[in-house]
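Exercise 3.2. Students should predict the tertiary structure of the chain below and write it as structure tokens, then compare their answer with the key that follows.

Predict this chain's 3D structure.
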Amino acid sequence: MKRITLPDFQWLAAQPHTTKRTRLSLKAMLASNTPAPPAGALLLAVSDEYFVCEGQVIVTGEAEVGLVFHHTDTTFVSIGMDRTSLFTTLSIMGWKNRIALPYASTNGERIWMMRRAEEGLFIGWKENEKQDAHWMGPFQLPGLKHSVSFGWYMTNLSEAASEVRIERFTYHRHP
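Answer key:
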């Protein structure tokens, strides 16, 4: 499969209020009161290989942004953050659990990472390049044996619009 780049990601159903995309970055303006996954904005690509990827996400406002492995609207896992909490949403065949844990952020900037390996799916993050990554996983979801849809989700439950920028995306095959 070809190496995935930021232009390969496509919006699934819901889209942010406005978007601006270049080959190396994406800027999205989220309206207020947008829903959580899977009903909110999902920016997804597809891969049938084991991989590691990462991208820097910068949020201005109160938006919740994170990564999602998506099979269908009823089978997915997403992990994301806003300025005060870490959110994990897991849905298997419609049985959905969403957990919010306090996790204060120093700013709206994070490096998000994902890895698909033989042992499962992993999602990680770090505040900056010098920090070690925090990984969650492995996740095993039905229907993801051969290929996965993966990417970012964005939601804004606040009363004001929020801006999200994705930059410095990299994708590599995982041995």
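Discussion points: The CA atoms of residues 94 and 129 lie 36 Å apart. The chain is about 0% helix and 60% strand.
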